[in-house]
Structure formats: C-alpha cells, structure tokens
Amino acid sequence: MPHTPALLVIDMQNATVGIAHRPTETVAVIAGLRDRARAAGVPVVTVRQRGEGMVPGTEGWRVVPELAPREGEPVVDKTTPDSFLDTDLAEILRAHGVTEVIVTGFATEVCVDTTARQALSRGYDLVVVADGHTTSRRSAADAGGLMPADRSIAQYNTVYGMIGWPGRSIRVRAAADVDFAAPEEARGVTPA
Fold it and tell me: Which controlled-vocabulary keywords does the entry list (predicted)?
C-alpha cells in the first residue's frame, strides 16, 4: 500500500483555543501546515469535540476561523478524547487510503495523545507535530498537580520520540520539517 498521510486538526475550537497555552502561535503553526497539506493534496480532517460548553451550533463549539474546514473537507464530531471512538474517522481515512496520520490540536495530554495512540493501535504510522499541539494555560496556583504547559508539551514530544511500536513509524517533527513523504523517503532511504 503506498504511503498516504492525512493531517488531523483536533479540537481547535473557540472554547478550547480560548483556554489554550500559546493559542496564537499554535493556530498559526497548524494553519501553515494545513495550507501545505492542501497544496500537496494531503487530506485535512477537522475533528470537533461535543459536550459541556461545546454544544453544536454555539460559538464555543465552532472551529476557530483560521482553521475552519473548507467545504467538502471531512469533519468528525466526537464526544470522547478518542477521535476514532463512535465516529467515522476510520472510514474517512480508509476512503482516502491513509497509512499515516499527522496529529495536531488540543489538548496534548488528552485528545491529542489518545488519538495518536489509537491511530498506532489501528495500524497507522504517526507524525506528532511538536509545535502543532497545545494544552491549557496553567498557573502554579491552579494547576492542580499538573506540570506547566511548556513542560507538558515537551514531555509528550519526548515520549513520542522514544516509544517504539512494532511495525509502525513514529516521528516527532516541527511543522516546518513535516515533508509528507514516506518515513523511509524522509530519512533518505529508498523503500525496498
């Protein structure tokens, strides 16, 4: 099966971006990557969370304008941190012949991580966009035991750079270094 990536933009909605750490920078990084994906013919799948404070049709539920999907682009609505659970994401990816997911969005420790690991378990290669995911803003007083946002993002990038998954390619790349090429091609190795 030929290498075919898809870009996932997870939960970049008004309500989540409103509480996000480095929201302007993260939205800009994802928007730039999304534009490059579109230009390369790579499918862009927008994932939206539904639930408390994220009621369909409300302002908080809407995807931020900078990342709004184009007409005809796939949109997946979910009710759990897992973008695959009880959604049509797997069918959308299968219809596009996708073999690798490129993960961006909110929140690093919850929906981004859960979806990334589910993608690996479902047979997809994975690219974690190091500067393309974020988490909630935190102060020392209200963190509730969570590590500061910058450290949490860095930890997840490090973990994905270290873990192995038999039969899967896992890459952590800055958005500027995402090349949409097959992992072997990205390393300069000619596939067998």
Answer: Hydrolase
Q: Is residue 190 part of a domain?
A: no
**Interacting residues of 53 by C-beta distance below 8 A, sequence separation 6+:** 15, 60
Tokens of 85: 């659970």
What pLDDT digit, counting tens, does each position of 1-18 carry? 688 999 999 999 999 999
Give the span between the Cα atoms of 176 and 131, in whole angstroms.
9
Q: Is 163 helix (H, G, I), strand (E, B) or coil?
A: coil
Per the domain annotation, does 192 fall within a domain? no
Identify the CA nearest to 11 among candidates 51, 70, 41, 71: 51
6: preceding bond cis by omega (within 30 degrees): no
Predicted confidence band of residue 189 (pLDDT cuts 50, 70, 90)? very low
| DSSP state at residue 173 | E
Q: What integer pLDDT is reported at residue 147 of this predicted model?
A: 86
Name the phi and psi angles at 24, rounded to 5. Answer: -65, -45
Residues 17/112, Cβ–Cβ less than 8 Å: no
Q: Taking 50 as the threshold, does the pLDDT of residue 113 lie above it?
A: yes
CB-side exposure of 5: number of CA atoms within 13 Å?
27
Asked if residue 183 has pLDDT above 80, the reply is no
**CATH code, 66:** 3.40.50.850
Q: Which residues pair with 171 in a beta bridge?
A: 127
Structural contact between residues 5 and 127, judged by C-beta atoms closer than 8 angstroms: yes
